[in-house]
């Protein structure tokens, strides 16, 4: 599995660097119009979506079909994608925290009261949206999978909205939402792994 993870990392390494540079330029501009901590969510989504590059390259190059001939379980291929998505998304969270904090200091907006909320939101969006986004790229064709990817993040936002309405806009609501989104992510990982063990990878 280590080899598969390294292969995926090198596939998106250059695109991640380009995305981060672009994000910093655009993020600095929009930070004058919104709370800087919003950049944490944006960074998380941008890096999380970079994993879609792996799927597109794997499909076009025929890698997915070739990889099933390797002496590894087909579920390991799925696990690598879920782990890589989690890894780059969490990098996005930490990068967003660092960058938004730096921006706050530059523009002298030192009100960090929103920081915990946006960290929670970023983590929730990562796992909730990932539980939808990743299966879409395996089970659907390229066009439909992209639609699924674009819909997954608004659905994540909708999930947070519903939870805050049911429980309230507080730490308890965010904590429960985080746990539920993580459970959903693990369930998605489990069932997709079981699916590809019994069926051909598209």
In total, the number of strands is: 0
Inertia-based shape: globular
Radius of gyration: 18 Å
Tally of alpha and pi helices? 8
Q: How many domains would you count in the coordinates?
A: 1
Termini, distance in Å?
A: 20 Å
Helix content: over 70%
How can the largest sheet be summarized? none
Give the helix/strand class: mainly alpha
Mean pLDDT score: 81
Listing every helix as H and every strand as E from the N terminus to the C terminus, the arrangement reads: HHHHHHHH
Beta-strand content estimate: under 5%
Q: Which blocks of ≥5 consecutive residues have pLDDT under 50?
A: none
Protein name: ABC-2 transporter permease
Keywords: Membrane, Transmembrane, Transmembrane helix
Pfam families: ABC2_membrane_5 (PF13346)
Organism: Clostridium porci
How would you briefly describe this protein structure?
The chain has helices at residues 2-30, 38-49, 52-61, 63-67, 74-106, 115-139, 142-167, 171-198. It is mainly alpha-helical. It is globular, with a radius of gyration of 18 Å.
Please give a structural write-up.
This is ABC-2 transporter permease. Keywords: Membrane, Transmembrane, Transmembrane helix. Pfam families: ABC2_membrane_5. The chain crosses the membrane at residues 12-32, 38-57, 82-107, 119-140, 147-168, 174-192. This protein is an all-alpha fold. It has one domain. 83% of the residues lie in helices and 0% in strands. The chain has helices at 2-30, 38-49, 52-61, 63-67, 74-106, 115-139, 142-167, 171-198. α7 packs antiparallel against α8 (171-198). The chain is globular, with a radius of gyration of 18 Å.
